[in-house]
Amino acid sequence: MAATDAATPGSVETRGHPGRTATVTSVAVFMVSLDNLVVTTALPKLRESLDASLAGLEWTVNSFTLVFAVLLLSAAAVADRFGRKRLFAIGIGVFTLGSVLCALAPGIELLVAGRAVQGVGAAIVLPLTLTLLSAAYPPQQRGAALGIWGAVGGLAVALGPVVGGVVINYLSWQWIFWLNVPIGVALLALTPGWLTESRGERKPLDVVGTLLGCLAVLGLVFGLVEANSAGWGSVRVTGALTLGAVALLAFLGWEHRTPAPMLPLRFFRNRGFNAINGVSLLMYFGMFGSIFLVMQYVQTVQGASPLGAGLRLLAWTGMTLIAAPIGGVLSDRIGGRPIVLTGMVLQAAGLVVIALTVTESSGFLTLLPAFVLNGLGMGLYFGPAANLALGAVRRTEEGIASGVNNTIRELGGVFGVAVLSAVFAARGGYESGHAFVTGMRAAVWLGAGAVAAAAVWSLWLGGRTPGSGTGADSGPAGTDAEFSGGAATTPAPAATGPVPDTAAAAESPVGLRG
Length: 514
Fold this sequence. Notes:
The structure is a single chain. This protein is mostly helical. It has 18 helices and two strands. A hairpin with a 2-residue loop joins strand 1 and strand 2 (about 485-490).
Protein backbone atom coordinates (compact mmCIF):
# COMPACT_ATOMS: atom_id res chain seq x y z
CA MET A 1 0.00 0.00 0.00
CA ALA A 2 2.92 2.35 0.55
CA ALA A 3 3.83 4.76 -2.16
CA THR A 4 7.37 6.09 -2.19
CA ASP A 5 8.97 8.97 -4.01
CA ALA A 6 11.91 8.20 -6.25
CA ALA A 7 15.12 8.01 -4.32
CA THR A 8 16.63 11.12 -5.79
CA PRO A 9 18.59 13.69 -3.82
CA GLY A 10 16.28 15.87 -1.81
CA SER A 11 13.27 13.63 -2.33
CA VAL A 12 10.96 12.83 0.57
CA GLU A 13 9.46 9.42 1.19
CA THR A 14 5.68 9.25 1.16
CA ARG A 15 3.83 6.59 3.12
CA GLY A 16 0.42 5.36 2.01
CA HIS A 17 -1.96 5.64 -0.93
CA PRO A 18 -2.76 9.38 -1.27
CA GLY A 19 -6.40 8.99 -2.33
CA ARG A 20 -7.29 6.35 0.24
CA THR A 21 -5.48 8.20 3.01
CA ALA A 22 -7.28 11.42 2.11
CA THR A 23 -10.64 9.62 2.16
CA VAL A 24 -10.17 8.02 5.59
CA THR A 25 -8.69 11.09 7.27
CA SER A 26 -11.25 13.47 5.75
CA VAL A 27 -14.20 11.35 6.87
CA ALA A 28 -12.68 11.16 10.36
CA VAL A 29 -12.25 14.95 10.52
CA PHE A 30 -15.80 15.44 9.30
CA MET A 31 -17.28 13.05 11.86
CA VAL A 32 -15.46 14.50 14.87
CA SER A 33 -15.92 18.17 13.89
CA LEU A 34 -19.57 17.81 12.94
CA ASP A 35 -20.52 16.05 16.18
CA ASN A 36 -19.32 18.83 18.44
CA LEU A 37 -21.25 21.50 16.54
CA VAL A 38 -24.42 19.42 16.37
CA VAL A 39 -24.34 18.94 20.16
CA THR A 40 -24.11 22.70 20.68
CA THR A 41 -27.20 23.22 18.51
CA ALA A 42 -29.09 20.57 20.50
CA LEU A 43 -28.51 22.05 23.98
CA PRO A 44 -32.05 23.45 24.42
CA LYS A 45 -33.54 20.05 23.56
CA LEU A 46 -31.14 18.28 25.93
CA ARG A 47 -32.17 20.62 28.76
CA GLU A 48 -35.82 19.79 28.15
CA SER A 49 -35.43 16.02 27.64
CA LEU A 50 -32.97 15.35 30.48
CA ASP A 51 -34.19 18.05 32.89
CA ALA A 52 -30.62 19.37 32.88
CA SER A 53 -29.39 22.43 34.76
CA LEU A 54 -27.41 25.22 33.11
CA ALA A 55 -24.24 23.83 34.69
CA GLY A 56 -25.02 20.39 33.27
CA LEU A 57 -25.47 21.82 29.79
CA GLU A 58 -22.20 23.73 30.07
CA TRP A 59 -20.36 20.56 31.02
CA THR A 60 -21.92 18.71 28.10
CA VAL A 61 -19.75 20.99 25.96
CA ASN A 62 -16.89 21.60 28.38
CA SER A 63 -16.20 17.94 29.26
CA PHE A 64 -15.37 17.31 25.60
CA THR A 65 -13.35 20.52 25.27
CA LEU A 66 -11.40 19.93 28.46
CA VAL A 67 -10.38 16.34 27.73
CA PHE A 68 -9.70 17.14 24.08
CA ALA A 69 -7.36 20.02 24.89
CA VAL A 70 -5.55 18.18 27.69
CA LEU A 71 -4.73 15.08 25.63
CA LEU A 72 -3.88 16.61 22.23
CA LEU A 73 -0.17 16.98 22.83
CA SER A 74 0.40 13.74 24.72
CA ALA A 75 -1.68 11.70 22.26
CA ALA A 76 0.48 12.96 19.38
CA ALA A 77 3.65 11.99 21.28
CA VAL A 78 2.36 8.49 22.07
CA ALA A 79 1.36 8.01 18.42
CA ASP A 80 4.83 8.98 17.24
CA ARG A 81 6.31 6.34 19.57
CA PHE A 82 3.91 3.41 19.05
CA GLY A 83 2.54 3.97 15.55
CA ARG A 84 0.23 6.57 14.07
CA LYS A 85 -2.10 4.21 12.22
CA ARG A 86 -2.48 2.05 15.33
CA LEU A 87 -3.33 5.04 17.53
CA PHE A 88 -5.65 6.45 14.86
CA ALA A 89 -7.67 3.21 14.89
CA ILE A 90 -7.79 3.27 18.70
CA GLY A 91 -8.97 6.88 18.61
CA ILE A 92 -11.77 6.08 16.17
CA GLY A 93 -12.83 3.16 18.38
CA VAL A 94 -12.85 5.33 21.51
CA PHE A 95 -14.83 8.10 19.81
CA THR A 96 -17.39 5.58 18.51
CA LEU A 97 -17.72 4.03 21.98
CA GLY A 98 -18.24 7.49 23.48
CA SER A 99 -20.99 8.14 20.93
CA VAL A 100 -22.80 4.95 21.99
CA LEU A 101 -22.52 5.95 25.66
CA CYS A 102 -23.98 9.38 24.88
CA ALA A 103 -26.87 7.94 22.86
CA LEU A 104 -27.78 5.55 25.68
CA ALA A 105 -27.39 8.09 28.51
CA PRO A 106 -30.53 8.26 30.68
CA GLY A 107 -29.41 11.46 32.41
CA ILE A 108 -27.11 14.43 32.06
CA GLU A 109 -24.37 12.91 34.25
CA LEU A 110 -23.78 9.94 31.95
CA LEU A 111 -24.09 12.18 28.90
CA VAL A 112 -21.27 14.35 30.26
CA ALA A 113 -19.19 11.21 30.88
CA GLY A 114 -19.84 9.99 27.33
CA ARG A 115 -18.81 13.37 25.95
CA ALA A 116 -15.53 13.10 27.87
CA VAL A 117 -14.89 9.71 26.25
CA GLN A 118 -15.57 11.30 22.87
CA GLY A 119 -13.02 13.97 23.76
CA VAL A 120 -10.37 11.30 24.34
CA GLY A 121 -11.01 9.82 20.91
CA ALA A 122 -11.05 13.21 19.20
CA ALA A 123 -7.74 14.21 20.81
CA ILE A 124 -6.14 11.11 19.32
CA VAL A 125 -7.76 11.33 15.89
CA LEU A 126 -7.57 14.97 14.84
CA PRO A 127 -3.78 15.59 14.99
CA LEU A 128 -3.14 12.23 13.33
CA THR A 129 -5.37 13.08 10.36
CA LEU A 130 -2.90 15.85 9.53
CA THR A 131 0.19 13.69 10.08
CA LEU A 132 -1.07 10.69 8.10
CA LEU A 133 -2.30 12.89 5.25
CA SER A 134 0.95 14.83 5.09
CA ALA A 135 2.99 11.62 4.96
CA ALA A 136 0.96 10.29 2.03
CA TYR A 137 1.69 13.21 -0.31
CA PRO A 138 4.95 14.50 -1.78
CA PRO A 139 5.93 18.01 -0.63
CA GLN A 140 4.91 19.75 -3.85
CA GLN A 141 1.32 18.47 -3.49
CA ARG A 142 0.92 18.73 0.27
CA GLY A 143 -0.57 22.22 0.35
CA ALA A 144 -3.37 21.17 -2.00
CA ALA A 145 -4.05 18.02 0.05
CA LEU A 146 -4.22 19.98 3.29
CA GLY A 147 -6.44 22.53 1.57
CA ILE A 148 -8.93 19.73 0.91
CA TRP A 149 -8.55 18.69 4.55
CA GLY A 150 -9.40 22.24 5.58
CA ALA A 151 -12.38 22.30 3.23
CA VAL A 152 -13.76 19.11 4.80
CA GLY A 153 -13.38 20.66 8.24
CA GLY A 154 -15.14 23.74 6.90
CA LEU A 155 -17.95 21.58 5.53
CA ALA A 156 -18.45 20.10 9.00
CA VAL A 157 -18.53 23.61 10.49
CA ALA A 158 -21.01 24.70 7.83
CA LEU A 159 -23.33 21.72 8.16
CA GLY A 160 -23.14 21.28 11.94
CA PRO A 161 -25.92 23.71 12.89
CA VAL A 162 -28.02 22.60 9.91
CA VAL A 163 -27.69 18.89 10.70
CA GLY A 164 -28.39 19.64 14.34
CA GLY A 165 -31.55 21.50 13.44
CA VAL A 166 -32.80 18.71 11.16
CA VAL A 167 -32.08 15.97 13.72
CA ILE A 168 -33.76 17.89 16.53
CA ASN A 169 -36.78 18.81 14.41
CA TYR A 170 -37.45 15.44 12.81
CA LEU A 171 -35.74 12.75 14.93
CA SER A 172 -34.59 12.67 18.54
CA TRP A 173 -31.49 14.05 20.24
CA GLN A 174 -30.06 10.51 20.58
CA TRP A 175 -29.58 10.40 16.80
CA ILE A 176 -26.93 13.10 17.11
CA PHE A 177 -24.72 10.35 18.51
CA TRP A 178 -26.11 7.26 16.75
CA LEU A 179 -25.15 8.80 13.40
CA ASN A 180 -21.48 8.48 14.38
CA VAL A 181 -21.62 4.74 14.95
CA PRO A 182 -21.86 3.42 11.36
CA ILE A 183 -19.27 5.99 10.25
CA GLY A 184 -16.89 4.91 13.00
CA VAL A 185 -17.37 1.22 12.21
CA ALA A 186 -16.68 1.88 8.51
CA LEU A 187 -13.49 3.78 9.36
CA LEU A 188 -12.32 0.94 11.61
CA ALA A 189 -12.89 -1.49 8.74
CA LEU A 190 -11.00 0.65 6.20
CA THR A 191 -8.06 1.77 8.35
CA PRO A 192 -6.00 -1.49 8.31
CA GLY A 193 -5.95 -1.73 4.52
CA TRP A 194 -6.14 1.92 3.46
CA LEU A 195 -3.61 3.52 5.81
CA THR A 196 0.10 2.79 6.10
CA GLU A 197 1.85 2.71 9.46
CA SER A 198 4.38 5.42 10.26
CA ARG A 199 6.19 6.53 13.38
CA GLY A 200 8.14 9.46 14.69
CA GLU A 201 11.56 9.26 16.25
CA ARG A 202 12.28 6.03 18.14
CA LYS A 203 12.92 7.47 21.58
CA PRO A 204 11.74 6.64 25.12
CA LEU A 205 8.32 7.94 26.10
CA ASP A 206 8.67 11.08 28.20
CA VAL A 207 6.31 10.11 31.03
CA VAL A 208 7.13 13.07 33.31
CA GLY A 209 6.81 15.57 30.47
CA THR A 210 3.53 14.02 29.36
CA LEU A 211 2.03 14.27 32.86
CA LEU A 212 3.25 17.84 33.39
CA GLY A 213 1.95 18.89 29.97
CA CYS A 214 -1.47 17.38 30.69
CA LEU A 215 -1.60 19.07 34.10
CA ALA A 216 -0.65 22.43 32.61
CA VAL A 217 -3.36 22.33 29.94
CA LEU A 218 -5.91 20.94 32.43
CA GLY A 219 -5.38 23.84 34.83
CA LEU A 220 -5.46 26.51 32.14
CA VAL A 221 -8.49 25.18 30.26
CA PHE A 222 -10.49 24.38 33.41
CA GLY A 223 -9.85 27.87 34.75
CA LEU A 224 -10.93 29.47 31.49
CA VAL A 225 -14.12 27.46 31.00
CA GLU A 226 -15.18 28.10 34.62
CA ALA A 227 -14.20 31.78 34.71
CA ASN A 228 -17.49 33.36 33.67
CA SER A 229 -19.75 31.08 35.71
CA ALA A 230 -17.66 30.96 38.89
CA GLY A 231 -16.09 34.42 38.58
CA TRP A 232 -12.57 35.33 37.49
CA GLY A 233 -11.58 36.05 41.09
CA SER A 234 -12.99 32.84 42.58
CA VAL A 235 -10.71 30.40 44.35
CA ARG A 236 -11.65 27.68 41.87
CA VAL A 237 -10.60 29.73 38.86
CA THR A 238 -7.50 31.40 40.28
CA GLY A 239 -6.36 28.08 41.75
CA ALA A 240 -6.79 26.27 38.43
CA LEU A 241 -5.01 28.98 36.45
CA THR A 242 -2.17 29.11 38.98
CA LEU A 243 -1.82 25.33 38.87
CA GLY A 244 -1.74 25.44 35.08
CA ALA A 245 0.89 28.18 35.02
CA VAL A 246 3.13 26.44 37.56
CA ALA A 247 2.79 23.10 35.74
CA LEU A 248 3.61 24.83 32.44
CA LEU A 249 6.83 26.28 33.88
CA ALA A 250 7.74 22.88 35.32
CA PHE A 251 7.00 21.26 31.96
CA LEU A 252 9.26 23.69 30.11
CA GLY A 253 12.02 23.19 32.68
CA TRP A 254 11.79 19.41 32.42
CA GLU A 255 11.69 19.43 28.62
CA HIS A 256 14.82 21.60 28.61
CA ARG A 257 16.75 19.12 30.78
CA THR A 258 15.55 15.68 29.75
CA PRO A 259 17.54 13.93 26.99
CA ALA A 260 14.38 12.62 25.24
CA PRO A 261 11.73 15.38 25.52
CA MET A 262 8.16 14.88 24.41
CA LEU A 263 8.27 18.40 22.95
CA PRO A 264 11.71 19.40 21.62
CA LEU A 265 12.05 23.05 22.66
CA ARG A 266 14.28 23.68 19.64
CA PHE A 267 11.02 23.89 17.69
CA PHE A 268 10.58 27.32 19.24
CA ARG A 269 13.94 28.53 17.95
CA ASN A 270 12.31 28.36 14.52
CA ARG A 271 10.80 31.71 13.59
CA GLY A 272 8.29 30.19 11.18
CA PHE A 273 7.02 27.69 13.78
CA ASN A 274 6.59 30.43 16.37
CA ALA A 275 4.89 32.71 13.86
CA ILE A 276 2.23 30.27 12.66
CA ASN A 277 1.41 29.21 16.22
CA GLY A 278 1.10 32.85 17.27
CA VAL A 279 -1.20 33.53 14.32
CA SER A 280 -3.29 30.47 15.22
CA LEU A 281 -3.64 31.54 18.87
CA LEU A 282 -4.79 35.07 18.00
CA MET A 283 -7.04 33.99 15.13
CA TYR A 284 -8.89 31.39 17.20
CA PHE A 285 -9.16 33.83 20.11
CA GLY A 286 -10.80 36.53 18.02
CA MET A 287 -12.78 34.51 15.52
CA PHE A 288 -14.27 31.75 17.64
CA GLY A 289 -15.00 34.07 20.55
CA SER A 290 -16.96 36.22 18.08
CA ILE A 291 -18.76 33.27 16.46
CA PHE A 292 -19.93 32.18 19.93
CA LEU A 293 -21.78 35.50 20.34
CA VAL A 294 -22.92 35.93 16.72
CA MET A 295 -24.63 32.50 16.77
CA GLN A 296 -26.55 33.57 19.87
CA TYR A 297 -27.40 36.94 18.33
CA VAL A 298 -29.02 35.29 15.31
CA GLN A 299 -31.27 33.24 17.60
CA THR A 300 -31.77 35.57 20.57
CA VAL A 301 -32.16 38.93 18.82
CA GLN A 302 -33.12 38.03 15.25
CA GLY A 303 -35.44 35.26 16.50
CA ALA A 304 -34.20 32.47 14.23
CA SER A 305 -34.75 28.80 15.09
CA PRO A 306 -31.69 26.54 15.48
CA LEU A 307 -32.20 25.32 11.92
CA GLY A 308 -32.75 28.86 10.65
CA ALA A 309 -29.61 30.05 12.43
CA GLY A 310 -27.61 27.24 10.86
CA LEU A 311 -28.86 28.16 7.41
CA ARG A 312 -27.99 31.84 7.93
CA LEU A 313 -24.48 30.95 9.14
CA LEU A 314 -23.89 28.96 5.93
CA ALA A 315 -23.03 32.31 4.34
CA TRP A 316 -20.08 32.39 6.76
CA THR A 317 -19.07 28.78 7.19
CA GLY A 318 -19.90 27.71 3.65
CA MET A 319 -17.33 30.13 2.22
CA THR A 320 -14.58 28.00 3.76
CA LEU A 321 -15.49 25.26 1.27
CA ILE A 322 -14.53 27.59 -1.56
CA ALA A 323 -11.50 29.26 -0.03
CA ALA A 324 -9.73 26.35 1.71
CA PRO A 325 -8.83 24.33 -1.43
CA ILE A 326 -7.84 27.53 -3.25
CA GLY A 327 -5.60 28.55 -0.35
CA GLY A 328 -3.97 25.13 -0.26
CA VAL A 329 -3.20 25.10 -3.98
CA LEU A 330 -1.89 28.68 -3.96
CA SER A 331 0.35 27.95 -0.99
CA ASP A 332 2.08 25.27 -3.08
CA ARG A 333 2.76 27.87 -5.78
CA ILE A 334 3.50 31.17 -4.05
CA GLY A 335 4.09 30.21 -0.43
CA GLY A 336 1.86 30.30 2.63
CA ARG A 337 2.61 33.74 4.05
CA PRO A 338 0.60 35.85 1.55
CA ILE A 339 -2.34 33.42 1.77
CA VAL A 340 -2.47 33.45 5.58
CA LEU A 341 -1.98 37.24 5.64
CA THR A 342 -4.87 37.71 3.20
CA GLY A 343 -7.04 35.40 5.31
CA MET A 344 -6.34 37.37 8.48
CA VAL A 345 -7.05 40.71 6.78
CA LEU A 346 -10.38 39.43 5.41
CA GLN A 347 -11.41 38.08 8.82
CA ALA A 348 -10.48 41.27 10.63
CA ALA A 349 -12.42 43.28 8.05
CA GLY A 350 -15.45 41.02 8.44
CA LEU A 351 -15.51 41.45 12.22
CA VAL A 352 -15.11 45.21 11.89
CA VAL A 353 -18.12 45.30 9.55
CA ILE A 354 -20.17 43.37 12.13
CA ALA A 355 -19.14 45.73 14.92
CA LEU A 356 -19.99 48.78 12.80
CA THR A 357 -23.34 47.64 11.36
CA VAL A 358 -25.03 45.33 13.87
CA THR A 359 -28.15 46.63 15.61
CA GLU A 360 -31.09 45.00 17.34
CA SER A 361 -33.08 45.33 14.10
CA SER A 362 -30.39 44.23 11.64
CA GLY A 363 -31.57 41.76 9.03
CA PHE A 364 -29.66 38.95 7.41
CA LEU A 365 -28.68 41.02 4.37
CA THR A 366 -27.03 43.62 6.60
CA LEU A 367 -24.60 41.05 7.98
CA LEU A 368 -24.20 39.02 4.78
CA PRO A 369 -21.08 40.88 3.50
CA ALA A 370 -19.35 40.39 6.86
CA PHE A 371 -20.25 36.69 6.93
CA VAL A 372 -18.78 36.20 3.44
CA LEU A 373 -15.55 38.04 4.33
CA ASN A 374 -15.12 35.98 7.49
CA GLY A 375 -15.77 32.69 5.71
CA LEU A 376 -13.32 33.41 2.91
CA GLY A 377 -10.68 34.49 5.44
CA MET A 378 -11.10 31.34 7.53
CA GLY A 379 -10.83 29.14 4.46
CA LEU A 380 -7.63 30.82 3.30
CA TYR A 381 -6.12 30.20 6.74
CA PHE A 382 -6.85 26.49 7.26
CA GLY A 383 -4.81 24.66 4.61
CA PRO A 384 -1.70 26.88 4.51
CA ALA A 385 -1.57 27.15 8.31
CA ALA A 386 -1.42 23.37 8.72
CA ASN A 387 1.20 23.17 5.98
CA LEU A 388 3.33 25.84 7.65
CA ALA A 389 3.17 24.19 11.08
CA LEU A 390 4.16 20.73 9.83
CA GLY A 391 6.70 21.95 7.29
CA ALA A 392 8.72 23.72 9.98
CA VAL A 393 9.94 20.39 11.43
CA ARG A 394 11.34 17.06 10.28
CA ARG A 395 8.86 14.63 8.79
CA THR A 396 9.47 12.27 11.72
CA GLU A 397 8.41 15.09 14.08
CA GLU A 398 5.24 16.15 12.30
CA GLY A 399 3.03 14.34 14.82
CA ILE A 400 4.18 16.37 17.79
CA ALA A 401 4.19 19.58 15.71
CA SER A 402 0.56 18.91 14.79
CA GLY A 403 -0.24 18.30 18.45
CA VAL A 404 1.38 21.59 19.47
CA ASN A 405 -0.48 23.58 16.82
CA ASN A 406 -3.83 21.97 17.65
CA THR A 407 -3.32 22.54 21.39
CA ILE A 408 -2.46 26.21 20.85
CA ARG A 409 -5.48 26.69 18.59
CA GLU A 410 -7.75 25.00 21.16
CA LEU A 411 -6.40 27.21 23.95
CA GLY A 412 -6.94 30.25 21.76
CA GLY A 413 -10.57 29.31 21.13
CA VAL A 414 -11.32 28.57 24.79
CA PHE A 415 -9.57 31.77 25.90
CA GLY A 416 -11.43 33.78 23.26
CA VAL A 417 -14.86 32.50 24.30
CA ALA A 418 -14.06 33.17 27.97
CA VAL A 419 -12.67 36.69 27.50
CA LEU A 420 -15.16 37.88 24.87
CA SER A 421 -18.03 36.51 26.98
CA ALA A 422 -16.68 38.46 29.96
CA VAL A 423 -16.56 41.63 27.85
CA PHE A 424 -20.09 40.93 26.63
CA ALA A 425 -21.37 40.49 30.20
CA ALA A 426 -19.59 43.64 31.43
CA ARG A 427 -20.90 45.88 28.63
CA GLY A 428 -24.30 44.32 27.93
CA GLY A 429 -26.30 41.16 28.58
CA TYR A 430 -29.45 39.20 27.76
CA GLU A 431 -31.93 41.67 29.25
CA SER A 432 -32.96 43.14 25.88
CA GLY A 433 -31.96 43.23 22.26
CA HIS A 434 -30.24 46.58 22.82
CA ALA A 435 -28.24 45.22 25.77
CA PHE A 436 -27.22 42.14 23.78
CA VAL A 437 -26.03 44.20 20.82
CA THR A 438 -24.15 46.64 23.03
CA GLY A 439 -22.25 43.84 24.73
CA MET A 440 -21.66 41.92 21.50
CA ARG A 441 -20.36 44.97 19.68
CA ALA A 442 -17.72 45.59 22.36
CA ALA A 443 -16.67 41.94 22.33
CA VAL A 444 -16.47 41.75 18.52
CA TRP A 445 -14.26 44.87 18.43
CA LEU A 446 -11.85 43.01 20.71
CA GLY A 447 -12.06 39.96 18.47
CA ALA A 448 -11.31 42.10 15.41
CA GLY A 449 -8.27 43.53 17.18
CA ALA A 450 -6.96 40.04 17.95
CA VAL A 451 -7.34 38.93 14.31
CA ALA A 452 -5.70 42.16 13.10
CA ALA A 453 -2.79 41.37 15.43
CA ALA A 454 -2.67 37.90 13.84
CA ALA A 455 -2.34 39.58 10.44
CA VAL A 456 0.64 41.59 11.68
CA TRP A 457 2.14 38.48 13.28
CA SER A 458 1.83 36.59 9.99
CA LEU A 459 4.43 38.94 8.51
CA TRP A 460 6.99 36.98 10.57
CA LEU A 461 6.27 33.87 8.55
CA GLY A 462 9.07 32.92 6.16
CA GLY A 463 8.95 34.48 2.74
CA ARG A 464 10.22 31.63 0.61
CA THR A 465 8.52 30.41 -2.51
CA PRO A 466 8.76 26.92 -3.96
CA GLY A 467 12.16 25.97 -5.27
CA SER A 468 14.00 28.87 -3.65
CA GLY A 469 15.98 26.69 -1.28
CA THR A 470 16.13 26.60 2.49
CA GLY A 471 16.06 29.83 4.39
CA ALA A 472 16.52 30.36 8.09
CA ASP A 473 13.55 32.65 8.29
CA SER A 474 11.12 30.10 7.09
CA GLY A 475 12.38 27.25 9.16
CA PRO A 476 13.87 23.92 8.24
CA ALA A 477 12.72 21.85 5.35
CA GLY A 478 10.95 18.59 5.73
CA THR A 479 13.59 15.96 4.99
CA ASP A 480 15.52 14.49 7.87
CA ALA A 481 18.77 14.69 5.94
CA GLU A 482 18.51 18.47 5.91
CA PHE A 483 18.78 18.71 9.70
CA SER A 484 21.82 18.88 11.86
CA GLY A 485 21.11 19.25 15.54
CA GLY A 486 17.81 20.97 14.88
CA ALA A 487 19.19 23.57 12.49
CA ALA A 488 18.47 23.64 8.81
CA THR A 489 21.17 23.40 6.22
CA THR A 490 20.89 24.10 2.53
CA PRO A 491 20.52 20.90 0.51
CA ALA A 492 22.58 20.34 -2.58
CA PRO A 493 20.50 20.49 -5.76
CA ALA A 494 19.93 17.37 -7.77
CA ALA A 495 21.62 17.13 -11.14
CA THR A 496 18.28 17.19 -12.92
CA GLY A 497 16.87 20.35 -11.35
CA PRO A 498 15.87 22.05 -8.12
CA VAL A 499 15.45 20.02 -4.96
CA PRO A 500 11.74 19.60 -4.06
CA ASP A 501 12.13 21.15 -0.62
CA THR A 502 9.31 20.17 1.74
CA ALA A 503 9.01 23.46 3.52
CA ALA A 504 9.55 25.56 0.43
CA ALA A 505 6.91 23.62 -1.44
CA ALA A 506 4.13 25.22 0.54
CA GLU A 507 5.79 28.11 2.36
CA SER A 508 6.49 25.47 4.59
CA PRO A 509 2.55 22.24 7.32
CA VAL A 510 -3.62 20.87 13.28
CA GLY A 511 -5.40 22.60 12.46
CA LEU A 512 -7.61 21.16 12.71
CA ARG A 513 -5.97 19.37 13.71
CA GLY A 514 -8.41 23.19 12.57
